[in-house]
Every structure is written in C-alpha cells, then in structure tokens.
C-alpha cells in the first residue's frame, strides 16, 4: 500500500472510533484507511477485576448508537442512574437523577478493553487495514499529504494523517506543534473497589479538603475509583497496604455504600490541562489526548474527544475534496471550537473552584450545591453538562 487516503496514528479508542465513523462513507468513496498501532488489538476479551474503564456520557451513548455499535457495548455497560455530588464536612449536596431528566441513564461506565473489542470487531478489513504492531518514527510533509516513516523501515504516504497517539505524542513535538501545559500539582489514583452494599447505579463525586474523589458504578457491583490528591500524598496512598488504603478511603468517603471489602491494582497519573496550540494543518489533524487532555474531575475528556471525532468524520464525508483539504479541516475546527472551549473551561473551573480551601469560597460552594439541588433549571443545566448535551446538539 504505497498511498492511502487516511492514516490514523493510534488505534486506541479514539482512533478506532474515527475509523468506524468513516467506514461506510469511505467504502462508498473508495477511500482506504490505515490504523497504525504499536500494541496488537483484537485479543479475545477476558473479564478482569482490575479492568480500566471509561465513563460514557448519555450523548456518547447516542453517538455509538448512531454508529450501530451500542448493542454490542451495552452487554457490559453499567448505567449511571444517579449522580450524588457533595463536599466533605459541608451541608450542601446535589443529586442528579436520570428519571428527572427523562433519560434511561445519565451515562454508562464501560471497561476500556470491552469497548476496544467492540470497536475492533466492527471494523471492515476491506476498508480499514491495520499496521500493527508498528510505530511511526517520523513524518515528512509532502505537497499532497504526509509520508509516514515506520519502525520497520517501510513508509506510507497519505492524504490525511490523524494523530490520535495520546497526550505525550512525540510526533506532535517533532512536528513543532506547541502545547499549553498547566499542571494542577495533583495526581489521580485509579483503582477498582468493591463495597459491601449494592451501588444501584449510583455515581458519587465527593469533594474533600485534600482533593476530589469519584466512585462510578461497574458490573459485578464493583466501583471505579478516581481519587485526586496532591502529588506527594498520592504517592503515599499508592504505597499503603490494602487495609490501610481502604481505611483512609472509608474516612474520606463515608459509609453510603457500606464498608469497602476489596481493592484492585492501583495506578497513578499526574494531572495537567494540556491543549495543542494547533489542532489542524493542511493534511493533518490531532484528536483525543493529542489535541487536549482534561482533568478527570468532570469525566468529560473522552466524551469531548468522541464529539470531535464524529464532527471530523462528518466534515470529511460532506466535503467534495479529498481528505486533507485544509478548508475542510478548518470547518471542522470552527464547528468544534465552542464545544471545546465550554467543556475545557467547565472542567478547569470546577477543578480550581474545589481546590481552594478559602472559607468564603468553601461556604459559597456549599450554598451552590444546595441551590443546585433546589432549583430545577440550574440542576437541569448541570445535568446536561454531565450528559454531554450542553455544548452541542446531538443528532
């Protein structure tokens, strides 16, 4: 394959979703798509207690439903029926309920391995080819696209190169695309835990003096824990034995789900707001964490990336020009600018608001949460943000 219309660098969830969104239109147009991925996909799915997961908003569920993938995903998707937002030691709290919003669920929690399995199985090999395991070492700009130099000494030319290779994209750096990097001085500790009481589809966002704590419902009555702490203290928590860790978690969260009985493998990630200063160039687009990486507090990172992905696919398929046309890519960027600004701004402001311990602001937060629970219009607006419906009309 000397030249293809689209080369997607990164065959993870974002890259595979773009290939799926383009698949039918590419087949009709005779386009060829290549996914380049260093880690072999397609291994048979095996349930794991420690499986990493993603919170899919209601808007994301509708996108996957539109792409025909939701029936497969739904087999292992745990619905979020209620979100309880509170601050430790304060009286204010807000409760968002799917029933009040007239939807079957506010969102769903899905294991990444299962989501990947569903995506990979849905791709048509006659349209979407894999180069895997393979890695792009460097990229050379051509008049009509890019030449990708792979680690096996081969090369591939494409009309459009899409970088979906993560927040630490080396290719982005080598292309001279600068990023705005604002560290939060925090790290997220990720693990799965099992409570003694049924979670009943409840998700919890608990703000504490030391950082926010989120619990999301998973299958088999597990909960996905996202615990944000100052970087040094997060390292201390990582080193605790299981009994000590669960004891501290219980003190911070309380007993709304009874006692925590089991803890899975813990992972630690430094947190920062990262935004690429350029998301498109002629014959080039950035998606996913390569374009923007958000704080996990509001659970909007992957959902925003999927909205970007669908919008890019729509613009490429609506244009009479071949993929890579700069005017087409600029239209995509213009369409998604407001969504990105609002989502990134919402996530960043919530993070910084709840990170301060100033008494007046703390009191204001409590009143805000109480008012949110008592004022239906405000609660409905907040719920739409959480469901991924507040910044873009879903089809």
Automatic annotation (TrEMBL):
Official protein name in the record: 2-octaprenyl-6-methoxyphenyl hydroxylase
Protein keywords: FAD, Flavoprotein, Monooxygenase, Oxidoreductase
Assigned protein family: Belongs to the UbiH/COQ6 family.
SUPFAM superfamilies in alphabetical order: FAD/NAD(P)-binding domain (SSF51905)
Pfam families to which the protein is assigned, alphabetical: FAD_binding_3
A GO term for molecular function: oxidoreductase activity
UniProt keyword Aminoacyl-tRNA synthetase, yes or no: no
Coiled-coil annotated spans: none
Gene: ubiH
Keyword hit for Ion transport: no
Domain FAD-binding residues, every copy: 4-338
Cofactor(s) needed for function: FAD
Domain of life: Bacteria
Pathway the protein acts in: Cofactor biosynthesis; ubiquinone biosynthesis
């Amino acid at each position: 394959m000397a030249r293809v219309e689209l080369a997607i660098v990164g065959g993870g969830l974002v890259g595979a979703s773009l290939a799926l969104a383009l698949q039918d239109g590419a087949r009709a147009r005779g386009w060829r798509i290549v996914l380049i991925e260093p880690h072999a996909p397609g291994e048979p799915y095996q349930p794991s207690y420690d499986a990493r997961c993603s919170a899919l908003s209601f808007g994301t569920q509708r996108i996957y439903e539109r792409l025909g993938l939701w029936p497969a995903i739904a087999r292992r998707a745990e619905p979020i029926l209620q979100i309880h937002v509170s601050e430790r030691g304060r009286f204010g709290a807000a409760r968002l309920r799917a029933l009040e919003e007239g939807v079957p669920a506010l969102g769903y929690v899905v294991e990444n391995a299962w989501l990947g399995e569903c995506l990979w199985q849905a791709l048509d090999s006659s349209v979407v080819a894999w180069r895997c395991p393979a890695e792009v070492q460097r990229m050379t700009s051509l008049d009509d696209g890019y030449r990708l130099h792979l680690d096996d000494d081969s090369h591939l030319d494409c009309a459009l190169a899409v970088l979906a290779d993560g927040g630490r994209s080396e290719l982005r750096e080598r292309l001279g695309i600068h990023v705005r990097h604002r560290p939060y001085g925090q790290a997220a500790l990720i693990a799965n835990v099992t409570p003694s009481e049924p979670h009943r589809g409840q998700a919890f966002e608990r703000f504490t003096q030391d950082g926010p704590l989120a619990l999301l419902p998973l299958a088999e009555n597990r909960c996905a824990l996202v615990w944000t702490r100052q970087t040094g203290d997060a390292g201390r928590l990582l080193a605790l034995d299981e009994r000590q860790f669960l004891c501290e978690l219980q003190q911070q969260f309380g007993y709304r789900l009874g006692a925590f009985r089991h803890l899975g493998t813990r992972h630690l990630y430094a947190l920062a707001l990262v935004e690429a200063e350029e998301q498109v160039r002629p014959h080039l687009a950035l998606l996913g964490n390569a374009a923007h990486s958000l704080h996990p507090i509001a659970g909007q990172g992957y959902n925003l990336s999927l909205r970007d992905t669908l919008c890019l696919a729509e613009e490429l398929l609506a244009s009479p020009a071949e993929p890579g046309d700069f005017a087409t890519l600029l239209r995509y960027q213009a369409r998604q600018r407001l969504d990105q600004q609002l989502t990134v701004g919402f996530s960043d402001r919530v993070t910084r608001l709840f990170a301060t311990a100033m008494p007046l602001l703390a009191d204001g937060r409590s009143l805000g949460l109480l008012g949110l629970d008592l004022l239906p219009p405000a609660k409905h607006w907040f719920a739409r943000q959480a469901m991924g419906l507040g910044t873009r009309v879903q089809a």
